[in-house]
Amino acid sequence: MKSINPDDFRVSKHIMLATVPTNLEKYSDDDDEKEGELEKIQKKLSERQDVMYAHNRHAVLICLQGMDTSGKDSLIREVFKEFNSRGVVVHSFKTPNSTELEHDYLWRHYLALPEKGKFGVFNRTHYENVLVTRVHPEYILFENLPGIEKVEDITPKFWKSRMKQINNFEKHITKNGTLVLKFYLHMSKEEQRKRLLKRLESGEDNWKFSVGDLKERELWDEYQKCYEEAINETSTKHSPWFIVPADDKEMARVIVAKIIWEELQKLTDIKEPELDPKVKANIEEYKELLKD
Predict the structure, then answer these.
(1) Residue 178 belongs to what H/E stretch?
(2) Which CATH fold would you assign to the domain 6-289?
(3) Which of 70, 110, 135, 224 could form a Cys-Cys staple with 185, CB 3.0–4.6 A?
(4) What pTM value is reported for the model?
(5) Which three-class secondary structure state does DSSP give residue 9?
């Protein structure tokens, strides 16, 4: 398999989603090879997480965004398959409930941030607040914001300000020990059509189908425009976006896992804690006591 370089997917300059490929056959078209590569990275990530848990200085926040059927759920299941369950917590953010709406829009995301030593995965993220709400600005009215009485009050300046707030949020948590990695699963509209059809035709998967998926699909171009602007405005050095071709689910999982692994290598201070010197000095005595 061709070596995966995270910088090939990192957004470090202005991008246009229409020009970014949704499939990369140059890496591998062999499913067994992809599965084998993923298994190797799964094991390394699991071992690294164990050390991070013991070290207790860094947390990792993985943010996953993508259109419906882009493969977020299955990616989470496969990439973190070998993790100790205590080491990773997944949050899937739905429509804000009444309690959440009584707070600012980032409040529920702060509450879900991973503890030191753990991985947190946001399946749909705080970016829904500049994506879904931008495509459906009437949702903003439920937040009861000062000066926002009607949709017409929501100006381009409002969205610019909100993305700046998100940048500040991410900068704050990275300064306090959380590694933030954001992945956009970039799927073609044709591939989504195939996956939605498969859901309808499969007896095992048709429960996943929602009529709402079709309604949102009609707004595909608008969503792409909003994603493009959000990614360009918020891909920073401290919390980068990676655009991952997602027409091939198996390859997307390998790419995401590899990027996470490579970015973790930059946390060079992580190491297993050393045994207390007093305990270490008496280790032979403790062994003898345990022989009885």
Answers:
(1) strand 178-186
(2) Rossmann fold (3.40.50)
(3) 70
(4) 0.93
(5) coil
